[in-house]
Structures are given as structure tokens and as C-alpha cells.
Amino acid sequence: MHTLAQLRAGQLAGIQRLQLSCGLTEFPPEIFDLADTLEILDLSDNALTTLPDDLPRLTRLRVIFCSANQFTVLPEVLGACPGLTMVGFKSNQIREVPAASLPPQLRWLILTDNQVEELPAAIGDCTQLQKLMLAGNRLRALPPQLAACTRLELVRIAANRLEELPDWLLGMPRLSWLAYAGNPFSEADQQAADAATSIAGITWERLQIGQKLGEGASGVIHQAALRQAEGERAIGDKEVAVKLFKGAVTSDGLPRCEMTAFVNSGDHPNLIPVLGEVLGHPDGVHGCVMPLIDPGFGNLAGPPSLESCTRDTYPAGKHFSVDELFGIAGGIVSAARHLHQRGIMHGDLYGHNILHCGRGRSLLGDFGAASLYAPDGPHAAALQRLEVRAFGLLLEELMERCNLPATTQASLAALQAQCVLADVGARPSLAEAERLINSLRA
Ligand SMILES: Nc1ncnc2c1ncn2[C@@H]1O[C@H](COP(=O)(O)OP(=O)(O)O)[C@@H](O)[C@H]1O
Ligand SMILES: [Mg+2]
């Protein structure tokens, strides 16, 4: 984080990344002094309503964040910045997205938690678009022109006012991570799932919160001790993990929908289980309680970077043994197949949502982007095949870091290629992928 004083004193000359959060109501003109080098501009958590018309003078600008400001319109000047690939305006009061506001090279657009009712047809001209985050808006429909954005891989449309899930969306050649819970069209499935299960309530007083274990886009996870309540059925006096949600709408959707999917996920050896829902948090924060996963388990991968956009990141030199690869791939394909049978698309099937022990045992968690569907309904097959691509990408990441015997390599590479086919319907099901992986493993 930088300060206005540093900027004004010329102390930031030569920087590529500027982060200012100090109650700004106007764009500080001194930022233009950094034009020769500035690539990433983060003005989140201020009180801005506009950007200057000469913003394109920042000729090297690739990334701009203006989250948690007071914009009501996505500034048109963004579209005049030819080098901009990422635009993040989460948690403003944006109602209007003018066609002119979309930069031609846009890869990653974040409008989470705004009041957008409609997207311009011109979004179809953003053919480089890979990641589109629109959760928590007022969208009633998506422009069909979006189908022209054939590089789209990750789409968040949860917590909107969509009346239907468009067929063209489910046929998009690279779509791999989709979240749509909390829309009118998904309400019936949500209610059916809520009726089918009940979740234990765990009062806040019974939890003694300890150290932070992890953090993602939607929540902070703490270790905690769960005390046994008197006169209530004992869940156990044990060490647990508590996920506390950061807000009413997360980048993936609503805590209520995450809870429903999590509770409906059922038992599977490769899924993180859920114990209950936090009740009575003093600030009304939503949360869920899980068994504490052995601290020997770590994240399989890091989340995407600004550069990798949709793909997870791994430490340089990361290597998986053959047993590890089959342990992870076999466990995760089985867990995801189990979810598909129950009408749950995970929506965020990524290495960064997998905990693994380093010897092949792996656990899939984080239902924040999960969406429900009727397993015998009209969209089931397409939704499942969409997530098969996410599994195919994970498999690719594992294979790139493993020395497999030649014949195994060839068979697995063939499966991997099928999982990511552009023709959604031609991909195998997870059940088929699981069978092949198990036969190669044997
Ligand atoms: N039950 C658990 N036990 C131990 N650590 C956990 C548990 N659940 C989550 N974590 C840690 O917290 C991180 C973030 O959890 P996740 O559910 O993915 O949150 P988010 O929705 O914010 O991405 C995980 O990657 C993991 O490191
Ligand atoms: Mg996560």
C-alpha cells in the first residue's frame, strides 16, 4: 500500500504497481507522472465516482481495480485504454455498463456486487474474455452476443435475477467453471435441496476461535474448539475449522446457497465434510463448521495470478510421483462424480480447492460456487460435461509435473484431450473418466 504523500513527493517514480486507499474522492493527477512504468493501478476502497478522460495516457496500464468505490456507471474511458486486460469494479453501485466502457483486449471483468441490470451486446466484441464475474447483480438475461466470446472459461452469474439458463452458455467450447445459484431459474432446485436435508445449527458461543488456517475469495477459515452444549445432542467436543463468510454476496454467490450444496454433498472419502452452520454470530456473519483437516494436508495449488487468469499456479519445480498423481486424480474424479450424481456441479474444481497430504490422499472442498440441477433434468449432461473440462485441466496440471511410464502417459493424455474437447457433448462423463483412471492405476 502506498500513500498520497509518497506519490506527491515523487517517491514512487518507476513503479509498476500502485495501490492507494485513502478516502480519495478524485483521481490524483500525480498518477500520470508514473505513466512510463505503471501497469497495475489499484484504487480500491476509496470514494471515487469517475475516472479522468485522459486515463489512456497511462499507456502501459494492464490492470485496474476500483473495488468498493462509489461508481454508478462503468467509466467509458476504460474502453479507450488499449492495453487493459483486467477491470475490477467489485462492490460499487454500478447500474450501467456502456458499450464503450469495454476495452478491446479485456480478459478478466469483475462487476461482482453491483446493480447491473443489463450487459451491452458489445461484450461480444471482447473476444479475449476468459473470466466474467457478475455475481450479486440484477441481471435478468445475458446478451446472446456473449456466445462470441469463445475463450470464456470462468463465469459467475450467481445471485442475479435470471429467469433461465441459456443453452448457448452451456455449449461454450471452453467454459469450465460456472456458478449460477441464487437466480429465479434455480430456485426450485434450491428449495428441493433445502427440503431434503437439515443442517445442524451451532451457536457462536460454543465456538472458541483460534488461528487462521486459510483464506479464499469468499471466506476466512479459522481453527476453533467446539464445546459440547448441555442438553443438546452432542456433536462432539473437538477441534474444528470454521469458515466465516466475508459478506452477504461473495465473488461466487450467496452463503445460503453454499451451505445448501455443502450439506447436500453427502459422505465421500475425498470430500471435506460439513458439521453445521454457525448461528448467532454477534455481527450476523454467516459461517459453517467443518471437521479440522489434518494440518499435514496442504493446498494442491495456488489460485490463479493476474497473469495466469483462469489457471492455478504451482511452485517452480513442483513434482508429483506416479502414485500421487493417481491418488489425486482418482480421488477427485470420484468425488466430483459423486457430486454429479447428486445434482451438484462444484463450479470451482481447481487445485487451489483441494487439500492433499503429499502422498496422494486428497480432499475437495469449497462449495462457494456450487450450483444445483436435477440429475435427470434437461441441463444435467451439459453441466456435467462443462465441469469435465475443469477436471481435464487439473489432470493436465498433474501430468505436466509427473514422469509417467510411456504407455500410461499415452492413455492418460488421450483421456485428458477428450475431457477438454471444444465439442461439449463429445467429452466423457466423470464416471467414464473415473473408470479409465482406475484401470490405468491397477
Ligand atoms: N476443514 C478445513 N480444515 C483445515 N483447513 C481448511 C478447511 N477448510 C478450508 N481450509 C483452508 O482454508 C482455505 C480456504 O477455504 P475455502 O473453502 O476454499 O475458502 P474460499 O471459499 O474463501 O476460497 C483452504 O484452501 C484450506 O487451506
Ligand atoms: Mg477456495
From TrEMBL:
Gene3D superfamilies: Phosphorylase Kinase, domain 1 (3.30.200.20), Ribonuclease Inhibitor (3.80.10.10), Transferase(Phosphotransferase) domain 1 (1.10.510.10). One of its GO terms (cellular component) is cytoplasm. GO terms for molecular function: ATP binding; protein kinase activity. Residues 207-442 form the Protein kinase domain. It comes from the Bacteria. Keywords: ATP-binding, Kinase, Leucine-rich repeat, Nucleotide-binding, Repeat, Transferase. ATP binds at residue 243. The keyword Kinase applies. This is Protein kinase.
